[in-house]
Amino acid sequence: KNQVEQSPQSLIILEGKNCTLQCNYTVSPFSNLRWYKQDTGRGPVSLTIMTFSENTKSNGRYTATLDADTKQSSLHITASQLSDSASYICVVSFSKAAGNKLTFGGGTRVLVKP
Amino acid sequence: NAGVTQTPKFQVLKTGQSMTLQCAQDMNHNSMYWYRQDPGMGLRLIYYSASEGTTDKGEVPNGYNVSRLNKREFSLRLESAAPSQTSVYFCASALRTQVEKAFFGQGTRLTVV
């Protein structure tokens, strides 16, 4: 069964500090990996997307890394801001005959405190 | 540019009642999806429509039906709501070959009592 596991489930950080979120997956065959940010009461919004051949991708203060050999990805948030408080979801897509499908991780809930 | 629009945003149903969740997208996307999100779990695919006129079951289709009314609209129907269907429902759309770039609606929070 294809799975995407994220850790930690939640974390609290002080404003201005950095943090790193982890994503491990067993999806095969792997197509690409995407990190979403989901604010409370809103739908997920894409932060980064990486294909098999990419090791890192940045979007402002967000940097995602990918190690396709170990099937691990991380999302690093630099100089956190209060607006970074949200759930961060790792999503892996794999190809199937009926079209690409997405497998979602359970998310990491981040709370940035002043 | 509205993107993906879901209605309603909130709904409370009694067990056994029926209702339809509406979803519309204005990005000319071929594919549309319905997911449910439960606490601590990843989004799970209920049904999807790869293109207008086609629908297929996802991971958790039981208790739901869908209709791809036209290219813009994809509705999700609960015929006889159960408490286990209490969840947040998200509609998404994407170009047929780019599901990894799906855009999501803001969600419908459904409570079945």
Protein model, in words:
The complex is a heterodimer of chains A (114) and B (113). Chain A is an all-beta fold and 114 residues long. Helix content of chain A is 0%, strand content 59%. Chain A is built from no helices and 11 strands. Chain A has strands at 4-7, 10-14, 19-25, 30-38, 45-51, 56-59, 62-67, 72-77, 86-94, 101-104, 108-113. Chain A is globular and about 40 Å long. The termini of chain A are far apart. Chain B is mostly beta strands. In chain B, strands 2, 4, 5, 6, 9, 10 and 11 form a 7-stranded mixed β-sheet that branches. In chain B, strands 1-3-8-7 form a 4-stranded antiparallel β-sheet, with no helix packed on it. Chain B starts with a strand and ends with a strand. The radius of gyration of chain B is 13 Å and the shape is globular. Classes of the chains: A mainly beta (114), B mainly beta (113). At the A-B interface, strand 4, strand 5, strand 9 and strand 10 of A face strand 5 of B.
Mean pLDDT of chain B: 92
The assembly state of the depicted protein chains is heterodimer
Chain-averaged pLDDT of chain A: 89
Q: What fraction strand of chain B? A: over 45%
How large is the count of helical segments of chain B?
Answer: 0
Return residue spans of chain B where pLDDT drops below 50 for at least 5 consecutive residues: none
Shape of chain A: globular
N-to-C terminal Cα separation of chain B, in Å?
36 Å
Order of helices and strands of chain A: EEEEEEEEEEE
Strand and helix order of chain B:
EEEEEEEEEEE
Biggest sheet overview of chain A: 6 strands, mixed
- The backbone outline of chain B, from C-alpha atoms, is globular
Helix and strand content put the structural class of chain A at mainly beta
Largest interface: A-B, 25 and 26 residues
User: How much helical structure, as a percent, in the residues of chain B?
Assistant: under 10%
- Number of DSSP strand runs of chain A: 11
Catalogue the unreliable spans of chain A.
Answer: none
User: Tell me about the biggest sheet of chain B?
Assistant: 7 strands, mixed
Share of residues in helices of chain A:
under 10%
